């Protein structure tokens, strides 16, 4: 009891000297809160899309690529909590956000009846090695690793690689992204992927062009079945 109380006191002193703030609203976090305050947690825009029923993320890929199913955890809106959270993840050196979201979503997916067949492998959409070296990490890795843990699946981040370093694509339309992404991704080994059920994971789905290109690369390998998941999706108009 003494050491527990001492730890709490030291944590309170540390939080006073170096206050932790919510990545959603910049409010000071109190004891028991991590990364997001209670208000922002309650305000997160969950999609409630599952792998058990058709949803708008599925429809993004209709007629484009033969995936098994797609879903996303949160809605990504301009100037919203999720945009601020992912900005901190990608550009402010906070990779812990990736694992935080992965643990949360992984617990939900573990109970998702649509994943009745076991996922064999979780693969993050890769960054080019130069971009990853500059950032220090792939922002999707922690998310994918935690999903793999909750789904009792293997995690692999070296089987799918990006072969060219491209500029950000946030301002490009679907056709522009598809043309840019075409042939940018390749697999380093085919045998470990054969006859596997693969969950392909990214941070934000906008047009779906990046996921489409990665999924196409994976489905060229005999026997693969590809599912798609993301931290967030831009709502369809």
End-to-end Cα distance, whole Å, is: 55 Å
Order of helices and strands: HHHEHHEHHEEHEEHE
Overall helicity: 25-40%
Poorly predicted regions are 2-18
Class by SSE composition = alpha/beta
Strand content: 15-25%
Annotation, overall tally of beta strands = 7
Chain-averaged pLDDT: 87
Query: Sheet bearing the most strands, described?
Result: 5 strands, parallel
> Please, how many helices?
9
Shape: globular
| Radius of gyration from the alpha-carbon trace, in angstroms | 19 Å
Please summarize what this structure is.
By secondary structure, the chain is of the alpha/beta class. The protein has helices at residues 2-17, 38-43, 56-61, 81-91, 96-110, 129-135, 141-150, 174-181, 209-219; strands at residues 69-75, 121-124, 154-155, 160-162, 185-187, 197-205, 225-233.
Task: Describe the protein in words.
The protein is α/β, with parallel strands linked by helices and 237 residues long. It is built from nine helices and seven strands; from the N terminus they run αααβααβααββαββαβ. It has helices at residues 2-17, 38-43, 56-61, 81-91, 96-110, 129-135, 141-150, 174-181, 209-219; strands at 69-75, 121-124, 154-155, 160-162, 185-187, 197-205, 225-233. The protein has a five-stranded parallel beta sheet, sandwiched between helices. It has a two-stranded antiparallel ribbon with strand order 4-5. Helix 9 (209-219) links the parallel strand 6 (197-205) and strand 7 (225-233). Helix 5 runs parallel beside helix 7 (141-150) and helix 8 packs across helix 9. 38% of the residues are buried. Mean pLDDT is 87; it is low at 2-18.
């Amino acid at each position: 009891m003494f050491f527990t109380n001492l730890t709490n006191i030291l944590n309170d002193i540390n939080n006073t000297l170096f206050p932790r703030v919510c990545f959603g609203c910049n409010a000071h976090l109190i004891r028991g809160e991590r990364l997001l305050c209670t208000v922002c947690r309650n305000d997160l825009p969950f999609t409630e899309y599952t792998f058990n029923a058709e949803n708008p993320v599925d429809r993004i890929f209709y007629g484009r690529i033969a995936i098994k199913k797609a879903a996303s955890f949160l809605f990504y809106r301009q100037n919203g909590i999720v945009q601020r959270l992912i900005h901190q993840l990608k550009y402010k050196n906070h990779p812990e956000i990736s694992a935080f979201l992965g643990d949360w979503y992984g617990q939900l997916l573990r109970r998702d009846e649509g994943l009745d067949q076991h996922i064999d492998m979780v693969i993050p959409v890769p960054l080019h090695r130069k971009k990853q070296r500059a950032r220090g990490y792939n922002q999707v890795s922690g998310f994918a690793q935690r999903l793999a843990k909750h789904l009792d699946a293997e995690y692999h981040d070296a089987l799918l690689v990006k072969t060219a370093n491209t500029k950000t694509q946030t301002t490009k339309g679907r056709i522009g992204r598809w043309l840019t992404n075409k042939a940018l991704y390749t697999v380093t080994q085919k045998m470990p992927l054969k006859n596997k059920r693969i969950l392909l994971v990214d941070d934000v789905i906008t047009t779906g062009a990046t996921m489409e290109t990665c999924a196409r690369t994976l489905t060229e390998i005999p026997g693969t079945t590809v599912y798609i998941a993301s931290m967030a999706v831009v709502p369809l108009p």
